[in-house]
Amino acid sequence: MNAGWPVELTEGDVVLRPIRVRDQRAWQDANRRNRDWLRRWEATVPPAPAGRVGASRPSYRQMVRYLRGEAAAGRMLPFAVLYRGRLVGQLTVGGITWGSMCSANVGYWVDEEVAGRGIMPTAVALAVDHCFRTLGLHRLEVCIRPENGPSRRVVEKLGFREEGMRPRYLHIDGDWRDHLVYALTAEEVPEGMLRRWRGVRSSRRGYN
């Protein structure tokens, strides 16, 4: 079982909590309104080999059941992102690996309507601190398409290192796409990621 789950993490108006079946209407509404905004960055299922039936996209309920099962097994942390009480995105810590690696990857999306308000950097900072300080993970990785400037700015603001390119790494928007790898280890944020992010935001307000 996952000792760090379920959990609710909060910083100001931003809340991370487990995604729920009853979030269906709010999640689908946000996803539908952001179709054009998200399509270029969302994973897709590659075509099946000749003679085989391809996999279909899961329903919302199937997705949540899968995520909850993975969370219970300690392999994933599937969060809904709330801003001022409204569901505005999703953040998933996946591929949790223990043993000699102690690592995971982070993926996220946010409603275009509230993008640019610091919501996702705050959400990622909350997740990083939980993974390093509560779960005891050592390394977190975020893989982002080079063309996805807003997503890259999230991790760059937080001080993730760019490690290089993974050619044709994931099937996105109908084809195999290159991804940039950003990473962070626990030793690189001894003060805590949320504390670092508060400092960044404070310095920007002072500059302005």
Automatic annotation (TrEMBL):
Might you give the EC number(s) for this enzyme? 2.3.-.-
Keyword presence, Acyltransferase: yes
Q: Which GO terms describe its molecular function?
A: acyltransferase activity
Q: What is this protein called?
A: GNAT family N-acetyltransferase
Alphabetical UniProt keywords: Acyltransferase, Transferase
Which family is this sequence assigned to? Answer: Belongs to the acetyltransferase family. RimJ subfamily.
Q: Give the organism's phylogenetic lineage.
A: Bacteria, Bacillati, Actinomycetota, Actinomycetes, Kitasatosporales
Could you tell me which InterPro entries the record lists for this protein?
Acyl_CoA_acyltransferase, GNAT_dom, N-acetyltransferase
A single Pfam family it belongs to is Acetyltransf_3
The reply on keyword Acyltransferase is yes
**Occurrences of domain N-acetyltransferase (ranges):** 14-187
Q: Which SUPFAM superfamilies match?
A: Acyl-CoA N-acyltransferases (Nat)
> Which organism is the protein's source?
Kitasatospora paranensis
